Backbone:
């Protein structure tokens, strides 16, 4: 009888494939790192275009979930890609590039959100002393107020995400924003599926607390 392979034969096939086959982004990132290490930055930049093509659509979706504005999301994604290229030599080939990139992208999105909030506070008009009672506000203005409250609630949640410990924030993003399963997150991060579920549970419990829901 053949012996057990290095990869646990009892693990689900999807997990074994994820562990033995690096993602397309990881393969390209490793090539770029090698080119940069050899001093061939021009070719590294050309190859970087392929990496952007692989990740850009997903990156924009993730950034938009945090920022709720396509222009801000686009800028956050550009910031993330610039940081990736500048620090590509820090990428460890034994780890998932997708996860490394996701950390950088989430931080870039949160930085963009903080900058936007500071700007909005600076330019926000002073409240009108003779504001009308709520019941006299026209329907269009009431609708705008509801949208404002919804945006404020989302930004409240986003601030709570920013305050999560790094692993909880990463697992939350991969699960709830990038729509990865616990098995996929485990394979990409090196955590066990049980650990992933614990981090996700703790993150969601904290976020429910922010929204005033019962944990």
Residues:
């Amino acid at each position: 009888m053949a012996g057990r392979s290095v990869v646990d034969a009892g693990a689900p096939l999807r997990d074994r494939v994820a562990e033995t086959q690096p993602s397309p982004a990881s393969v390209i990132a490793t090539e770029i790192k090698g080119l940069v290490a050899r001093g061939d930055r021009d070719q590294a930049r050309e190859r970087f275009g392929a990496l952007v093509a692989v990740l850009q659509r997903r990156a924009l979706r993730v950034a938009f979930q945090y920022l709720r504005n396509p222009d801000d999301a686009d800028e956050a994604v550009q910031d993330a890609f610039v940081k990736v290229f500048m620090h590509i030599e820090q990428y460890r080939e034994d780890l998932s590039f997708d996860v490394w990139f996701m950390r950088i992208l989430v931080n870039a999105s949160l930085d963009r959100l903080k900058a936007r909030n500071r700007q909005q506070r600076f330019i926000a008009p002073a409240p009108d002393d003779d504001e009308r009672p709520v019941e006299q506000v026209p329907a269009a203005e009431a609708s705008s107020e509801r949208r404002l409250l919804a945006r404020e609630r989302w930004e409240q949640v986003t601030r709570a995400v920013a305050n999560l410990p790094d692993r909880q924030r990463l697992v939350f993003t991969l699960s709830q924003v990038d729509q990865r399963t616990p098995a996929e997150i485990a394979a990409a991060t090196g955590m066990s599926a049980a650990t992933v579920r614990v981090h996700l549970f703790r993150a969601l419990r904290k976020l429910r607390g922010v929204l005033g829901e019962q944990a």
